[in-house]
Prior knowledge:
By secondary structure, the chain is α/β, with parallel strands linked by helices. It is 40% helix and 18% strand. It has 3 domains: 6-121, Winged helix-like DNA-binding domain superfamily/Winged helix DNA-binding domain (Arc Repressor Mutant, subunit A, Orthogonal Bundle), CATH 1.10.10.10; 126-199 and 301-331, Periplasmic binding protein-like II (D-Maltodextrin-Binding Protein, domain 2), CATH 3.40.190.10; 201-294, 3-Layer(aba) Sandwich (D-Maltodextrin-Binding Protein, domain 2). It has helices at 6-13, 31-37, 41-53, 56-62, 67-81, 97-124, 139-145, 148-151, 219-225, 235-241, 244-247, 261-269, 314-330, 336-345, 353-358, and strands at residues 86-87, 94-95, 127-134, 155-162, 178-182, 191-199, 201-206, 227-230, 253-258, 275-278, 290-294, 301-308. The strands form 4 sheets. It has a 5-stranded mixed beta sheet with strand order 4-3-5-12-6. Strands 10-7-11 form a 3-stranded antiparallel beta sheet. A two-stranded antiparallel ribbon has the order 1-2. It is globular and about 65 Å long. Mean pLDDT is 74; it is low at 1-25 and 332-376.
Amino acid sequence: xxxxxxxxxxxxxxxxxxxxxxxxxxxxxxxxxxxxxxxxxxxxxxxxxxxxxxxxxxxxxxxxxxxxxxxxxxxxxxxxxxxxxxxxxxxxxxxxxxxxxxxxxxxxxxxxxxxxxxxxxxxxxxxxxxxxxxxxxxxxxxxxxxxxxxxxxxxxxxxxxxxxxxxxxxxxxxxxxxxxxxxxxxxxxxxxxxxxxxxxxxxxxxxxxxxxxxxxxxxxxxxxxxxxxxxxxxxxxxxxxxxxxxxxxxxxxxxxxxxxxxxxxxxxxxxxxxxxxxxxxxxxxxxxxxxxxxxxxxxxxxxxxxxxxxxxxxxxxxxxxxxxxxxxxxxxxxxxxxxxxxxxxxxxxxxxxxxxxxxxxxxxxxxxxxxxxxxx
Length: 376
């Protein structure tokens, strides 16, 4: 973590021509300072993530953004800085010399911003809880738990979305303090888990598949089409999500192995297998040329709030109590009717205004309680 003292800040914001601080004697900001004030820190984060991942699509996935939003942010940052950061002339994304030169200053800028936020939280008595979730599961509920109307501004949330490479959503390597989990993992012995909600299981099928037009499917229907093969380091979690515990063993699978959701979705679109997910994930992915169909003979999946018993963090207990209470207040029925309605929009209702814009369903983790704009 980098901390800038007053002298350091003056050096950053100084008017080089007059060698004066940013606001000498209450004067007006310099042109350089004004330009810095309009710098989008989220765009800087996107720039650093692309540089680390070498992929716009992977960056969009990690930061829970659309690929178009990532591309737009990079273009805006390049215009703001007056340099080209990435070489897009080949299939492999690469940094330009200017991009390489700006990596370290960008890291320093974000670290300074984080230090500023951490110091402000410490001085105000506000605590920040690091929360992990998979594919944005219950993100609306998590953000609502830290909203001023719920916690009076005394608790903040730093939300990180994980993928198949870590089903513990950061708890395994202590990257987060608490996580929202679905399905067992190989690290359960070190975790304290409390079920806060149940989510319907949805089949992922090609929109051209005969299954796509059905109200529901069963496990035998999916097995007849063969499953897309998923590469995951946690085999217990992988087997559970193939629904092995329901049928009593592994299903027929297509030979190609997929390491990311994007790869799996591409295969399913082409008719090379099926997959499974939760209704809530619909609010965070674009399922182009795919259909999500409720699986009628699989019970709704427990969604848990979890934390490590060997790394106690005082704020975690408060967050756990808060999100558990919110989930109970907004939970939905889990019968066939509820599953069909959940499939139309997303998951459990959450009373936030942002949810209505994001999804607009009355059974969605990103929708306010009550009737949604889609009328489902």
